[in-house]
Each structure stands twice: as C-alpha cells, then as structure tokens.
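In line with agreed milestones, work has continued on tokenised descriptions of protein folds. One protein thus recorded appears below exactly as we store it:

>
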Amino acid sequence: MKPCLSVFSRFCAAAALAVLLFSGCMQRGYEITYTPEMPEAMPPTSDAKIFNYYDVNADKIYDVFFKDYLIIGRSSFEGPYNDPQKLLEFAQAKGAHVVVTSSSLSEERTHDMIIDMPATPSIPVVGGDSAGPSGYHTTGVTSHQRMRMNLKIFNQTALFLRKVKDQPALWEMNKSQFGDLTAAKAYAEYDAQGARVEAFKMDGRILGFYNGASNSEWDKGDLKFIIYEGDKLSGVYLMDDKTPQLAKYAFFSDGRVEASLPLVEEKAVLRQTGGVK
C-alpha cells in the first residue's frame, strides 16, 4: 500500500501553497494598476527595454535620461516585490518602447495563518491470515497548525514610455554614430567589470566603447560610458543590462578609473589594460 504523507510533510506542503497564493495574488501589480495617460491606445511594439532602479523617484530618472520619450501610462502599487522583467509582453502590448521601474522597501509584515491539517495516524486493520494487517485505517482527526509568514512590502512604480524622436537613446548609441571619431584622439583601453572597452577623447569628453565579443546585450562599438572632463568629472555609465546610471569618475595614478554610481550605491572599476595614448 502506498504510504501517506506524514503530518509534518503535509503541513509543509500546505504552508508552501499558502505562501504561494498569498504572494501570487500581487504578482501582477504593474498590470492591475496600469493607468493610461493617452486618450487613445498606442500601436504595439516588439523591442521594449525595461530599466529597473531602486529607492529612487521614477519621475526624476525620467527627467535625467528619458525626457525625449512620451509617458503613455503609469503603474503604482504596494505589495510583495514584482519582477519588472515579467512586464515585457504587457509593456509591448501597450505600445511602450521603454519601461522605467523603481522600487523601495516600505515595511516588513508578519502574518499569522491557521491551517486545518487532517492528522493521519495509521491504525492496522487485522486480516484473516498470518501475513499481517490487511490494510490501514486513518482516524481523520483534524489539527490546527499556526503558520507565520514574513513578507517584505515594496512601493513599486513604473513609467511606460514611447519613443517619439528618430534618434538613438544612450543605450542605443554605437561608435558608428560618432562620425568624427576618426579624428578623435585614442585615449586608453580598459577592462570594465570584465568588459573590454576602448576610450577616445573628443570635445571635452572621454567616450568609452565596448570592444568585446557581441552578446545578447552588447555589440562591438556600443557606448559604455561618457566622462565629461572638468572639476566634477561627472558622466554616464551603462550597466551590464544597459541601464543608464549617473556616474562620478575618479582617476588614479595606476591608470585605474572608478565610477561611483550613486543611484545604486555601487562602484564600477575600470582597470587600464592599454596606456593613455
């Protein structure tokens, strides 16, 4: 006879199901709270990009990097963390070329749930031969189990953006777009967090271009960073997924360059592999 699950195993299974149902009800928060900002629906797209930021106002990010895009819709909700990358099909159906999301931890909540669990002690049913019991009978007694769930609650916002100008965005820029780069001064070569980058100095800027093998995100010659020369040495740095970040650059005597990224509270290190030319 196939053995039954133990009471503990059944409790664990029920607990897991409860957690799944509880958190799953808000895994479509962006879609449920979507509010269009255009009077008419936009034609669908097929090449949307999703950029996620943490603990920063999405409208401020829009003002810095995405001002050339039209806001066609918004979402805003509070709940368990929703993976922004799962928004891709929904965003494209709404006609967005870009989605900017921002999340910040709001609170941690503890929930107590009572789950009714049927106990399953096995009572042997005596048979008529010496082979042992002919079967087992369960008592059907129900027990009440308390389960405590700890959930992190996030404030989550999304801006759905549509491209309106026929010009490349930062993450679409390639070396080929800089026609006068042939006359620019080759500056240095770097290893940027594992990515090969060649830099050129032009018009008060240092432009870094990806110089490695093409992959799902990067093609050879894609823009990796911009450094505006001057006292502040500010600029832009593109993350591995091409999310644009504000950057503050610092140069060191060993040729190393550090890009401080305040929006993600991280540093990207550019290690010089070829001398300044």
Remarks:
- Confidence is low (pLDDT under 50) at residues 1-5.
- Residues 170-274 form a domain with the Lipocalin fold (CATH 2.40.128).
- The chain has four helices and 15 strands.
- The radius of gyration is 28 Å.
